[in-house]
Amino acid sequence: MLLKLLPMTHSKMARLILPLIAFFSVKLVNAQNSAKLPVKLRTAYTGIEVGSKGVKMSILELKNSEATVDFRILKDTAVNTDFISFSPETFSATLNGLIGLYITAGNEYGIPSKRIFTVISSGVKMQAEKNNKLDWINNLIDSFRLKINDPYRKVDVVDVQQEARLSHLGIVPESKRFNTFLIDIGSGNTKGGFFPYGDLNTFRLFQLNWGTKSISNATEKRCENDNSLDNYNRQLSKVLGGAENTDIIYAVNSSGSYKLSDNIAVSGGAAWAVANLTHPEMTDNPIVPVTYKEVEKLFEKLYNNFDALAPTFLAQTITRSSEREQAIKNIKAVQKVFDQKSLMAGTGLLLKIMRQFASAYETKQFFLVKNGSVGWISAYVDQTVEN
């Protein structure tokens, strides 16, 4: 049976949640506190990723001697630019964001260029292929090299297999490596998978050509001249229904995860948003366990009663003032990144994926990874440095 979180006191909640948090916390450091950590120039590296929605930068320390992690996130930040809209405006915004973060890493944090890694995500690549816009990626890379006066700067364009494998290595701790199925819901696509044979030699890929932004874009296109919330919800239902029937059901059934994966871990922006909106009280927890019913209830609120998700209203039952203030800050951060409609798109996609696993494999446990967005780029840096 899926884990059900019923109303309870904070002490009872803590007794239930702490063992679950230990499931993943060895691999993650809460990024919201990362600004307090000193950047140690001797071991600090930077990964800058151009994703579907924007440009992200992660500054990390490799080979942390504390515990058993391979890296520790010191700082992460992002600039929202919506590159996959493929317009001159979003191209310029993405280029400026990429240059700005590259300069910030060098000037503000003192990271030398040889320890700054720049990559283009698989979501961007897939959307560019779908829209016959691969030349936009090449132009972005060439323009970036020209602007920073480094014509030989390496900018990898990763494929979905590589990114999914790196996400698993960057997010899931080694102790849970071979019984966890990871799903990363990005802006332009969804990818993930698991290691089926108890070793790192073979990774079985799970992928969908749908992400939060691509679902939202497809829905808005169907809305035509009617921008009302009711029409958006109707068109979103059609887009999600089509994605479920043509892609999601097949991807889940063909994954084979039911044999070896006891746990379903979901990362990405949608997971981060849903985690903070469903359990705002879990401010310090990088991992939030949820059920299908909880996410379904959230979607209903997003559409029918969005005011109930106001930061002060959601956090009103949290008794400790410091936790309540942090919860309000987290919720405001979510609603700054995602508006009502994009939250509906991301939550709706998450629901469609969860429904397939929940209906087929009732013993699965669902976990939302808040800081998973820095996982794959961190693993990329880690492995690139090792090689």
CATH topology value of the largest domain: Nucleotidyltransferase, domain 5
Helix content: 40-55%
Number of domains: 2
Bulk shape: globular
Query: From the helix content, strand content and strand pairing, which structural class follows?
Result: alpha/beta
CATH architecture of the largest domain: 2-Layer Sandwich
The main sheet orders its strands as 8-7-6-9-11-10
Count up the helices: 13
Describe the overall structure.
- The N terminus is likely disordered.
- By secondary structure, the protein is an alpha/beta fold.
- It contains 13 helices and 11 strands.
- It has 2 domains: 223 residues, Nucleotidyltransferase, domain 5; 130 residues, Nucleotidyltransferase, domain 5, CATH 3.30.420.40.
- Helix 2 runs parallel beside helix 4 and helix 3 crosses helix 4.
For the structure shown, list the relevant keywords.
387 residues; alpha/beta; Nucleotidyltransferase, domain 5; 2 domains; 6-stranded mixed β-sheet; 5-stranded mixed β-sheet; 13 helices; 11 strands; 17% strand; globular; disordered N terminus
Secondary structure layout:
Blueprint: H1 10-24, E1 44-50, E2 54-62, E3 71-80, H2 88-107, E4 116-120, H3 122-130, H4 134-147, E5 155-157, H5 160-171, E6 180-185, E7 190-194, E8 204-208, H6 212-223, H7 229-255, E9 263-268, H8 269-278, E10 287-290, H9 292-304, H10 311-314, H11 321-337, H12 340-360, E11 365-369, H13 375-386
Parallel strand pairs: 1-4, 4-5, 6-9, 9-11
Antiparallel strand pairs: 1-2, 2-3, 6-7, 7-8, 10-11
